[in-house]
Description:
This protein is α/β, with parallel strands linked by helices. 42% of the residues lie in helices and 24% in strands. The mean pLDDT is 88.
Amino acid sequence: MDIRQLRYFTAIVEEGTLTGAAKRLNMTQPPLTAQLKLLEEELRCPLFTREGKRLHLTEAGHHFYERALRILGMCDAAVTEMADFQEGAAGTLRIGVISSVKDQLFPQWVQSFWEKYPNIRYEIYSANTYQLLDQLQNGQLDLALVRTPFPKSELNILYIKKEPFLAVGIPSFFPDPEKESLTLRELENVPFIFYRRWEKMLKMRFEAEGISPRIICCNDDAQTTLALAYMGMGVGLLPASGIPEFFSSPSEPKIAVKTLKEKTLYSQIALVCRKKALLPDSARRFWDMMEGFYSY
């Protein structure tokens, strides 16, 4: 098995046919078919099922595809890192960012960095905190912008911003639509939409107040929480930067956004890396910029 075969395999997966993959790879189909056969023989299991010209991944194929992407990402990262040694401030910044930060805060940080280092190019990946930490440990990323809580061992961490949790929902869910902030007790009887990431923490806070929250939905991303809250299904609880500014705008009367008064209910955005001393020059410059903005 070699890197070339992994690139062939991922192209076949992403194109869905040998013909499409061969076209993408600028090669003819017979040698591509032969390489796939050699790969399956070496792995001793089929990677695809055939349905006409379409190819569908087997369970083993799905697993191998994830591994192949990781390996190729690490290879590409190694090439990029070597280029960084030569290019200095004209290298590549490989950074991962969580969804609740990438739409509001992150563009501002990137703009500041771009204005200072206009020749650096960007490889930006979006995923949840735990997926980004996994990519960081595997060498696919140099830096990641994540949220607490997360396992902190073997990481260098720069805490950037502490954010309160906000409640978002249609005005009729709130006892006093004019109040800008409220307590958990005031939300005792409303239906909740929880982002699973914070389900345990939120339940603990409610239980500390002697409240059993009525959770009608638990999901895996902030966007789903916001969408369902906007539809009127319940009240979503999210950190401040996870809620777009237009949601709390007077021009959006359908939705209300309230700050929760509980000071112990917050999340912190953090910039993390494996070892700051070993960061490529472009990543180290970004870290230093963020440290200058938020060091405390």
